[in-house]
Amino acid sequence: MFEIPSDLNPALVPLAFLLGTWQGAGVADFPDREACNFGQEVTFAHDGRDFLEYRSHSWRLDGDGKRIGPLESEHGFWRIDGERRVEIVMIRDQGVAEVWYGELAEGKPQIDLVTDAIARTGGSPEYTGGKRLYGYVKGDLMWVGEKATPEIPLRPYMSAHLKRVVDPREWVGDLKDLPDDGVAFFR
Description:
0% of the residues lie in helices and 56% in strands. It is mostly beta strands. Strands 1-2-3-4-5-6-7-8-9-10 form a ten-stranded antiparallel barrel. β8 and β9 form a beta hairpin. The chain is globular and about 60 Å long.
């Protein structure tokens, strides 16, 4: 379950399920690079204005689940136009700027997105378009991404299963109810 913050811009209420920091793992596999497992942290935050700020950092994982190096970073801004149309501007560390459009599914916390415009620097990898699906499933955030290049038609390339990270500051108020010695709680 999630709470809708009292200071959330009313236009963003349909996107409230995204708010918070999420962590988890996924798989990446695309013909132009080596397949790998990855860890990811995603944050959706707000400051009262009419957008959510989005940050994503992912890193390669070895067979034991340990970080072995960065994979991708993204930063963007998510807006909702009307009740269900989602608009996103995003910058990637690989030298790519994107505009995404999509729609919130009817009656469920799910968003289907597709790229509308892409700008690349000269050194960025080939990329012609993408699709993403985000969904809030049993309290977790799950997503799958597809991409296309001039040589490779649109196909899945990354997906992840993320869990909401609980901020200990939210629990500080409950500490007054714990026993002084910490052991009495378990008796």
